[in-house]
């Protein structure tokens, strides 16, 4: 399929997934790495209650909360770059 045809289909709001080869698709910065974290029992209980309330898994609630905190921290503490040496 030529690019113009692809763009036309996309611009018309039609489903383009049929014409994509997603076998090698990657999500940058989304690779998974397993880590183990020990939490006190009271914390696990509260995580489970909140996850149930929201309708997600414990792992999901932990990921969302950590991502929110890291984003908040990054916005409030931007990385300071060193002046380039001349």
Tell me what you see in this structure.
The protein is mostly helical and 86 residues long. The chain has a domain at 36-76. It has helices at residues 3-11, 41-54, 58-76. It is extended. The termini are far apart.
Helix content: 40-55%
Please report which band the strand proportion falls in: under 5%, 5-15%, 15-25%, 25-35%, 35-45% or over 45%.
Answer: under 5%
Query: How many E strands?
Result: 0
Structural class: mainly alpha
Tally of helical runs: 3
How far the N terminus sits from the C terminus, by CA atoms, comes to 50 Å
* Spans where pLDDT lies below 50 across 5 or more residues: none
The overall pLDDT, averaged over residues, is 88
Q: Give Rg in angstroms.
A: 21 Å
Order of helices and strands: HHH
Shape: extended
Largest sheet: none
Label this structure with key terms:
3 helices, 49% helix, 86 residues, single chain, mainly alpha
Helix and strand arrangement:
Elements: H1 3-11, H2 41-54, H3 58-76
């Amino acid at each position: 399929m030529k690019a113009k045809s692809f763009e036309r289909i996309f611009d018309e709001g039609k489903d383009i997934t049929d014409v994509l080869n997603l076998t090698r698709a990657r999500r940058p910065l989304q690779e998974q790495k397993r880590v183990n974290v020990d939490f006190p029992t009271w914390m696990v209980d509260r995580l489970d209650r909140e996850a149930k309330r929201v309708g997600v898994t414990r792992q999901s609630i932990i990921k969302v909360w950590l991502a929110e905190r890291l984003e908040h921290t990054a916005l409030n503490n931007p990385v300071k770059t060193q002046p380039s040496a001349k």
